[in-house]
């Protein structure tokens, strides 16, 4: 019960606020009071959290929030499948578990398809989970190398003013990929780079190549043009798998240029062995405020927030 309620009853207070109920404890049983709808939601949430706590899962505010999303979307019965799925194991031996149905679908799509195009907001684990699967595939001998790339849209005039060679200029754009690799492989990823088993390079370096027996990830794909995206996708060689991922709300292309990510998602829908995955605010696994920020922007994009800031909902 202590695990369920959290430190200083933090989880209980969160449930009270989100469900509009009062949560108490009486003779070892949780008591709920409030409007019927809120009580029903809170009851389903607490039962689902009880399943997780019973198998030793740490119940923090983030887990409570994501479990509430499952309950509200009618997917509480999938709690074991979602939280039981392990994406990979970090360099420190920590299991990286799936945190939402969207993430579970993303991993299944990567496993079952040759090309996966994932579109979703910041914090949904697009890059992190793709790198996790790439490392797992390399360790299992499914591929012979990992290639990570992303467009450096500032790779012209502005980067030219920075000191150092080209690699030093583009490294800041590739930093998130280095960070994800270090999480799963420690500093050993540097030796793999030296041996050519791991390659991290700007998208322009992919032109003219055929990528065989490789797990290839294109990060920040929203900042590719349709021409660049076509060039990249046609690099696919035998025994390879590609994951293309990006955030359609953070396109930095010049005004009037269509994103290659969105263009590819439109043109390639329905083709066998190509999956289009769309993640949303409920899949955000960073700080809980990130989920609220993403949801607020999604509502605004759908016209649910008026210009004066008043909600059109309800």
Task: Report on the architecture of this protein.
Helix 6 (101-112) packs across helix 7 and helix 7 packs across helix 9. The chain starts with a helix and ends in a 13-residue tail after the last helix. Mean pLDDT is 84; it is low at 154-159 and 305-314. The radius of gyration is 22 Å and the shape is globular. The chain is 45% helix and 16% strand. It has a six-stranded parallel β-sheet, sandwiched between helices. Strands 1-2 form a two-stranded antiparallel ribbon. A two-stranded antiparallel ribbon has the order 3-4. It has 314 residues and is of the alpha/beta class.
Largest sheet: 6 strands, parallel
Widest β-sheet, arrangement of strands: 7-6-8-9-5-10
DSSP E strands, number: 10
Coarse shape: globular
């Amino acid at each position: 019960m202590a695990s369920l309620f959290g430190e200083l009853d933090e989880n209980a207070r969160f449930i009270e606020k989100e469900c509009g109920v009062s949560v108490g404890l009486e003779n070892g049983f949780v008591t709920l009071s409030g409007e019927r709808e809120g009580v029903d939601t809170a009851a389903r949430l607490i039962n689902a959290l009880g399943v997780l706590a019973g198998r030793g899962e740490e119940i923090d505010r983030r887990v409570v929030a994501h479990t509430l999303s499952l309950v509200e979307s009618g997917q509480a019965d999938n709690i074991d499948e979602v939280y039981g799925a392990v994406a990979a194991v970090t360099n420190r031996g920590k299991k990286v578990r799936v945190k939402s149905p969207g993430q579970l679908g993303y991993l299944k799509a990567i496993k079952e398809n040759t090309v996966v195009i994932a579109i979703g907001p910041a914090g949904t684990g697009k890059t992190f989970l793709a790198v996790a699967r790439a490392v797992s595939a390399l360790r299992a001998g499914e591929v012979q190398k990992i290639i990570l790339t992303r467009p450096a849209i500032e790779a012209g005039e502005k980067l030219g003013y920075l000191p150092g060679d080209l690699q030093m200029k583009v490294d800041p754009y590739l930093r998130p990929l280095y960070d994800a690799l270090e999480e799963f492989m420690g500093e050993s990823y540097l030796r793999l780079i030296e041996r050519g088993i791991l390659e991290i390079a700007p998208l322009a370096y992919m032109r003219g190549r055929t990528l065989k027996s490789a797990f290839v990830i294109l990060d920040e794909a929203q900042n590719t043009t349709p021409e660049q995206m076509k060039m990249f996708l046609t690099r696919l060689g035998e025994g390879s798998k590609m994951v293309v991922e990006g955030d359609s709300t953070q396109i930095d292309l010049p005004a009037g240029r269509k994103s290659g990510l969105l263009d590819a998602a439109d043109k390639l829908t329905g083709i066998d062995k190509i999956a289009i995955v769309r993640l949303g605010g409920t899949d955000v696994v960073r700080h809980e405020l990130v989920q609220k920020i993403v949801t607020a922007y999604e509502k605004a994009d759908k016209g649910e927030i008026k210009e004066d800031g008043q909600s059109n909902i309800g």
